[in-house]
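Session log. Operator J.P. requested a structure for one protein chain; no other inputs attached. Running the standard single-chain path with C-alpha coordinate output.
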Amino acid sequence: MVAVASHVLKVAIGLGIGAAMFAAPAFGSTMSDVVAICSDPLSTGPQKRDLFAISGWTPLASDAAPVLTDLSTALVIGFTAGMPDLEERFGLASVLAGNFATMTDKGAMTLWSRDGAVLAISIDKTPEGGEHLACYFAMPPSDETFEIARVYGEPEVLPELELMAVRFDESAFRFNPDVEYQMYSTWTRLTSDPLRTPLTDAYRLERIEILAK
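Structure written below.
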Protein backbone atom coordinates (compact mmCIF):
# COMPACT_ATOMS: atom_id res chain seq x y z
CA MET A 1 0.00 0.00 0.00
CA VAL A 2 1.40 3.38 -0.95
CA ALA A 3 2.69 5.42 1.98
CA VAL A 4 0.56 8.40 1.07
CA ALA A 5 1.03 11.93 2.29
CA SER A 6 -1.88 11.84 4.74
CA HIS A 7 -0.18 8.96 6.53
CA VAL A 8 3.33 10.37 6.32
CA LEU A 9 2.18 13.45 8.20
CA LYS A 10 1.28 11.29 11.21
CA VAL A 11 4.45 9.26 11.65
CA ALA A 12 7.67 10.12 13.44
CA ILE A 13 10.72 10.62 11.27
CA GLY A 14 14.14 9.36 12.25
CA LEU A 15 15.94 11.07 9.38
CA GLY A 16 16.62 14.77 8.74
CA ILE A 17 18.38 17.57 6.89
CA GLY A 18 20.99 20.12 7.88
CA ALA A 19 19.12 23.39 7.99
CA ALA A 20 20.17 26.21 5.68
CA MET A 21 20.04 29.56 7.46
CA PHE A 22 19.35 32.99 6.04
CA ALA A 23 18.93 36.31 7.83
CA ALA A 24 16.35 37.72 5.43
CA PRO A 25 14.57 36.44 2.34
CA ALA A 26 16.96 36.71 -0.60
CA PHE A 27 15.00 35.35 -3.50
CA GLY A 28 17.02 33.92 -6.36
CA SER A 29 16.47 30.87 -8.51
CA THR A 30 13.50 28.60 -7.93
CA MET A 31 15.21 25.60 -6.35
CA SER A 32 17.49 27.66 -4.12
CA ASP A 33 14.51 29.71 -2.89
CA VAL A 34 12.57 26.60 -1.93
CA VAL A 35 15.52 24.98 -0.16
CA ALA A 36 16.43 28.17 1.72
CA ILE A 37 12.90 28.87 2.92
CA CYS A 38 11.88 25.32 3.73
CA SER A 39 15.07 24.41 5.61
CA ASP A 40 15.47 27.67 7.57
CA PRO A 41 15.49 26.73 11.30
CA LEU A 42 14.37 30.19 12.44
CA SER A 43 10.91 30.18 10.86
CA THR A 44 7.75 28.22 11.52
CA GLY A 45 5.65 26.53 8.87
CA PRO A 46 3.14 29.42 8.63
CA GLN A 47 6.01 31.92 8.34
CA LYS A 48 7.50 29.91 5.49
CA ARG A 49 4.13 29.81 3.76
CA ASP A 50 3.90 33.60 4.05
CA LEU A 51 7.37 33.99 2.53
CA PHE A 52 6.33 32.03 -0.53
CA ALA A 53 3.21 34.18 -0.81
CA ILE A 54 5.30 37.36 -1.09
CA SER A 55 8.07 35.96 -3.31
CA GLY A 56 6.24 35.50 -6.58
CA TRP A 57 4.57 32.15 -6.07
CA THR A 58 0.99 31.80 -7.36
CA PRO A 59 -1.53 29.84 -5.24
CA LEU A 60 -3.17 26.85 -6.91
CA ALA A 61 -6.54 25.25 -6.21
CA SER A 62 -6.87 21.57 -5.37
CA ASP A 63 -8.55 20.89 -8.73
CA ALA A 64 -5.31 21.61 -10.65
CA ALA A 65 -5.24 17.92 -11.54
CA PRO A 66 -2.51 17.83 -14.24
CA VAL A 67 -0.14 19.84 -12.07
CA LEU A 68 -0.77 17.65 -9.04
CA THR A 69 -0.21 14.52 -11.10
CA ASP A 70 3.12 15.85 -12.39
CA LEU A 71 4.22 16.78 -8.84
CA SER A 72 3.17 13.37 -7.52
CA THR A 73 4.89 11.50 -10.37
CA ALA A 74 8.15 13.28 -9.57
CA LEU A 75 7.88 12.27 -5.89
CA VAL A 76 6.02 8.96 -5.82
CA ILE A 77 9.08 6.69 -5.63
CA GLY A 78 9.90 8.20 -2.25
CA PHE A 79 6.40 7.39 -1.01
CA THR A 80 6.40 3.76 -2.17
CA ALA A 81 9.56 2.26 -0.66
CA GLY A 82 9.50 -1.52 -0.49
CA MET A 83 7.21 -2.06 -3.47
CA PRO A 84 9.00 -4.25 -6.04
CA ASP A 85 7.08 -3.35 -9.20
CA LEU A 86 8.22 -0.03 -10.66
CA GLU A 87 5.22 0.45 -12.94
CA GLU A 88 2.88 -0.14 -10.02
CA ARG A 89 4.76 2.46 -8.01
CA PHE A 90 4.49 5.09 -10.72
CA GLY A 91 0.86 4.10 -11.20
CA LEU A 92 0.18 5.21 -7.62
CA ALA A 93 1.05 8.81 -8.48
CA SER A 94 -2.65 9.43 -9.09
CA VAL A 95 -3.42 8.23 -5.55
CA LEU A 96 -0.80 10.55 -4.12
CA ALA A 97 -2.19 13.43 -6.19
CA GLY A 98 -5.65 12.69 -4.82
CA ASN A 99 -4.32 12.81 -1.27
CA PHE A 100 -2.63 16.13 -1.95
CA ALA A 101 -5.94 17.48 -3.30
CA THR A 102 -7.85 16.25 -0.24
CA MET A 103 -5.32 17.79 2.13
CA THR A 104 -5.58 21.09 0.25
CA ASP A 105 -9.37 21.06 0.48
CA LYS A 106 -9.10 20.48 4.25
CA GLY A 107 -6.65 23.36 4.69
CA ALA A 108 -3.74 21.13 5.70
CA MET A 109 -1.77 21.85 2.52
CA THR A 110 -1.22 24.82 0.22
CA LEU A 111 -0.23 24.52 -3.44
CA TRP A 112 1.89 26.99 -5.41
CA SER A 113 3.44 27.44 -8.85
CA ARG A 114 6.22 29.61 -10.26
CA ASP A 115 8.35 29.49 -13.40
CA GLY A 116 6.99 26.09 -14.38
CA ALA A 117 7.66 24.59 -10.93
CA VAL A 118 5.11 23.29 -8.42
CA LEU A 119 5.30 23.40 -4.62
CA ALA A 120 3.10 21.86 -1.93
CA ILE A 121 3.47 22.78 1.74
CA SER A 122 1.75 20.87 4.52
CA ILE A 123 1.68 21.90 8.17
CA ASP A 124 0.41 19.57 10.88
CA LYS A 125 0.84 18.88 14.60
CA THR A 126 2.47 15.83 16.14
CA PRO A 127 0.64 14.09 18.99
CA GLU A 128 3.05 15.83 21.38
CA GLY A 129 2.14 19.27 20.05
CA GLY A 130 5.18 19.94 17.88
CA GLU A 131 4.96 21.11 14.29
CA HIS A 132 5.33 18.71 11.36
CA LEU A 133 6.29 20.60 8.23
CA ALA A 134 6.62 19.08 4.77
CA CYS A 135 7.72 20.71 1.50
CA TYR A 136 7.14 18.85 -1.77
CA PHE A 137 8.61 20.50 -4.87
CA ALA A 138 9.17 19.59 -8.52
CA MET A 139 10.49 21.47 -11.54
CA PRO A 140 11.76 20.86 -15.09
CA PRO A 141 15.35 19.54 -15.30
CA SER A 142 17.98 22.04 -14.18
CA ASP A 143 21.70 21.99 -13.43
CA GLU A 144 20.78 23.79 -10.22
CA THR A 145 19.25 20.66 -8.70
CA PHE A 146 22.47 18.79 -8.11
CA GLU A 147 24.59 21.91 -7.67
CA ILE A 148 22.60 22.43 -4.48
CA ALA A 149 22.42 18.74 -3.57
CA ARG A 150 26.18 18.19 -3.86
CA VAL A 151 26.64 20.17 -0.65
CA TYR A 152 25.29 17.01 0.99
CA GLY A 153 26.73 14.33 -1.29
CA GLU A 154 27.17 13.04 -4.82
CA PRO A 155 23.99 11.86 -6.58
CA GLU A 156 23.41 8.13 -6.43
CA VAL A 157 22.41 6.63 -9.78
CA LEU A 158 19.55 4.14 -9.40
CA PRO A 159 18.65 2.86 -12.88
CA GLU A 160 16.29 0.24 -11.47
CA LEU A 161 14.19 3.12 -10.10
CA GLU A 162 14.72 5.45 -13.09
CA LEU A 163 16.20 7.87 -10.59
CA MET A 164 19.20 9.86 -9.43
CA ALA A 165 19.06 10.86 -5.77
CA VAL A 166 20.81 12.59 -2.89
CA ARG A 167 19.50 12.22 0.65
CA PHE A 168 20.69 14.01 3.75
CA ASP A 169 19.47 13.73 7.32
CA GLU A 170 20.28 15.50 10.53
CA SER A 171 18.86 16.55 13.86
CA ALA A 172 19.27 20.29 14.37
CA PHE A 173 18.60 22.72 17.18
CA ARG A 174 16.93 26.05 16.74
CA PHE A 175 18.26 28.87 18.93
CA ASN A 176 15.85 27.70 21.60
CA PRO A 177 17.29 24.95 23.80
CA ASP A 178 13.79 23.57 24.37
CA VAL A 179 13.19 22.83 20.69
CA GLU A 180 14.90 20.27 18.47
CA TYR A 181 14.14 19.47 14.85
CA GLN A 182 14.43 16.06 13.25
CA MET A 183 14.62 16.59 9.50
CA TYR A 184 15.43 14.89 6.26
CA SER A 185 15.63 16.06 2.68
CA THR A 186 15.97 14.44 -0.72
CA TRP A 187 16.88 15.77 -4.16
CA THR A 188 15.91 13.52 -7.05
CA ARG A 189 15.83 13.45 -10.84
CA LEU A 190 13.71 11.05 -12.85
CA THR A 191 15.75 9.52 -15.67
CA SER A 192 12.81 7.77 -17.39
CA ASP A 193 12.93 7.59 -21.18
CA PRO A 194 10.44 8.65 -22.37
CA LEU A 195 9.78 11.17 -19.60
CA ARG A 196 6.94 10.30 -17.25
CA THR A 197 6.47 13.98 -16.36
CA PRO A 198 8.05 17.26 -17.49
CA LEU A 199 8.80 17.98 -13.80
CA THR A 200 11.74 15.59 -13.49
CA ASP A 201 13.66 17.31 -10.67
CA ALA A 202 12.26 17.18 -7.15
CA TYR A 203 13.05 18.26 -3.61
CA ARG A 204 11.36 16.99 -0.46
CA LEU A 205 11.82 18.11 3.13
CA GLU A 206 10.14 16.67 6.22
CA ARG A 207 10.71 18.42 9.55
CA ILE A 208 9.34 17.40 12.95
CA GLU A 209 9.60 19.75 15.91
CA ILE A 210 10.44 17.96 19.13
CA LEU A 211 9.61 19.89 22.28
CA ALA A 212 11.65 19.40 25.43
CA LYS A 213 9.78 17.55 28.17
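Operator note: The longest strand covers residues 179-190.
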